[in-house]
Amino acid sequence: MDFSAYRYALGTTNEAKKTAVRLATGSEPICLSVPSGISAQPMSEAETIEGAIHRAKTVLARLPQCDIGLGLEGGLMYDERYTRQWHLISVCAAWNGSELQLGRGLSFPIPNRAVERIRQEQIELRVIIDEWSGTTGSNHQGGAYGLLTKDRIRRADVFRDAVLAAITPFFSTLYR
User: Fold this and answer.
1) pTM above 0.85, yes or no
2) What separation in angstroms does the CA of 24 have from each of 1, 20, 57, 64, 73?
3) For residue 14, what are the contacts with CB-CB under 8 A and spacing of at least 6?
4) pLDDT tens, position by position, 72-131
């Protein structure tokens, strides 16, 4: 499959997400920051997916010269059934103007003390990760994944997998 033959509109200018699209497609996305239409820190899988879809559809509408709009959204979700643990999730919505596909990256446990602060202080996870790592802009780099795994997994890696999962149905004849 030649993913690089298409033009991708990405609904953000975040460097980790741009890198993810490059890694997944072999091409440079056209980036435009568009609103997610959700809260700054999504706290459920449904809200995270909703934000990704909103970005994908909005960016393709604003960049109609592209073939596929991509919305990448990170969020948190609570596993009430098995672990009673919060997880960081990464979602990609891919929209070609008539068909929507969703891909998900790795679901990764987040320390409960981080989620407690997010809820109490109404802050985003990136603020906590910046504090814990002693950096700024961690969400443009390795993010929480990088900090927690000592760079064995980086934010771009997880979003790359989500992008690949979302765009593959557009390219593989096995889905038709």
Assistant:
1) yes
2) 11, 6, 20, 21, 16
3) 72, 139, 140
4) 999 999 999 999 999 999 999 999 999 999 999 999 999 999 999 999 999 999 999 999
- Ordered DSSP codes for the chain: --GGGS-EEES---HHHHHHHHHHHSSPPEE-----SS-SS--SHHHHHHHHHHHHHHHHHH-TTSSEEEEEEEEEEEETTTT-EEEEEEEEEEE-SS-EEEEE---EE--HHHHHHHHHHT--HHHHHHHHHT-S-GGGTTHHHHHHHTTSS-HHHHHHHHHHHHHHHHH-GGG-
